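Hi there, hope your week has been kind to you so far. Would you mind checking whether the tokens look sensible for this chain? I owe you a coffee for this, so here goes:
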Amino acid sequence: MRQDWLAIKAPAKINLYLKVTGQRADGYHTLDTLMQKVSLCDELELRLCERGVHFSCPGNPVLENCDNLVYRAAELFLQTVGQQRSSVLQGVEISLKKNIPVAAGLGGGSSDAAATLKGLDALLGCGCSGEELAAMGLRLGADVPFFLADASAAIAKGIGEILTPVASLVGYTILLVNPGFPLSTQWVYQTFALTKNESASNIKIFQQDLGLSSGLVEGEEQLETLRNDLEAVSVSRCPEIGQLKDIMIASGAVATLMSGSGPTVFGLFVDPQSAETCNAFFRLRFEHVYLVYPFDAKA
């Protein structure tokens, strides 16, 4: 008997490094970035219905529109698979419980879109290949193929479509602090000025200092620095980002960095108690503070 209901989690991510490597003629920036899924998750419920896409986000009515990536992903899947298989597919009702802050550099919207594509494929029994889902995902956003992948961590190149799975981050407790205001990804990339002076605004934290030489990145790629080329742009608008990083380091974090286009800052802690203490400090001051761990994609 075919299942007509499914619950699925959509994890957030952090960027352990992010290098802007160029800009294409169509305006998209090319990247070299290492992304790690973490245990902060949005939650989606999908239920088959007679026809159409029906999307709700309880507690966040502003997100309930046809521009939301969940709605767009569902519509794209039904149209694409229906055309490819010359069949009329059912509709879907989707409810999203939003736990990941919006416009925070944590990939929440992209993860929601990926979960929608995977959920619909499972519910409808379409048997889409990973390549088919990734092609649909890339039409929705550069990070969507990463969230579609089974790997907990991966290096993404190009505009996000070239993925190399790597070993997941281990041995750290991760603290996420969002200062409470959204930061437009589009604005950050438009403001970013590509420069050859890579060391000008990047924080360099060497692999041996972090104890990451045990195989976080395998093969030829080696994690030599934690850096984010977009950080200086975001700090220019939100100086709080730098202040958050300073406090985390003073509180025992062995590394801190802004994730994605920001403004969320993450800290890596070897000592769980130091992470708990820092978490308690920030929770008195900000609403969106999370103590998380690497996401187990196989769980």
Summary: The first strand starts at residue 5 and ends at 23. The chain has two domains: 5-165, 173-292.
